[in-house]
Amino acid sequence: MPTVKQMDKLAAATAVDKNAPAEPPTGPADAMPREYWDALLKDAGADVRPTDRSIQSRKLSEIGRHVLRVTCSRCSRIVEIKKADAARLYGLDAVWKDVGQKLLNNTCQARTGRYEEDGCWPQFD
User: Parallel, antiparallel, or unpaired for β 122-124 and 78-82?
Assistant: First the structure.
């Protein structure tokens, strides 16, 4: 338990802080502090995934996965193919976006007859 003198000292120290002008709270429109951006950029997990090219724009020879998957966001069908099989059928220089679109179109069941709406809408995983 603090003594009376210690409580008086503590009260005097906090009274000075109450008279100091308080900084306004930061809101969503305010700029983020420099320390926040430094910590974010120094984060070890920030460089885990390469951001230079997405998987659909890579050639089959550049992809490290063994199984490639493309999903139709229209009819929710999923088509998987081994990378070796895709390379055998379409070549190592084929772009995964084109290969995935061909795989979905070859087995598409949502045909409307209109060119704009016909076929599947690929989503690469």
Answer: unpaired
